[in-house]
Write a structure and sequence with these properties.
five-stranded antiparallel sheet
């Protein structure tokens, strides 16, 4: 990866799990916190790169990251598939 790693200027979040996400091949990267083995993660539906998964951390102080996902929040969209009118009708019909 280049000098400015993915996520260096974006808002990020750590997570222990992820759904509807595919994982690319592992590769060595030097990130802001040192050298790691990571794999890009992407949306299974649209194939947009969402962040990465820490496979291995070389520095003892970074071991807590292993197995965790970094997701760039700019790529996250909360969508339940309901239009506002449809959601209101469904709530009223359940009452």
């Amino acid at each position: 990866m280049g000098e400015a790693p993915l996520g260096s200027n974006q808002e990020l979040t750590y997570t222990n799990f992820s759904v509807n996400v595919g994982c690319g091949p592992s590769e060595e990267r030097v990130l802001l916190t040192g050298q790691h083995t990571v794999a890009d993660i992407y949306c299974d539906c649209c194939k947009t790169t969402l962040g990465w998964k820490y496979e291995y951390a070389y520095e003892l102080s970074q071991k807590y990251k292993e197995g965790k996902f970094i997701i760039e929040l700019a790529h996250m969209v909360k969508d339940n598939g309901w239009e506002k009118e449809d959601a209101g009708r469904k709530r009223r019909s359940l009452s």
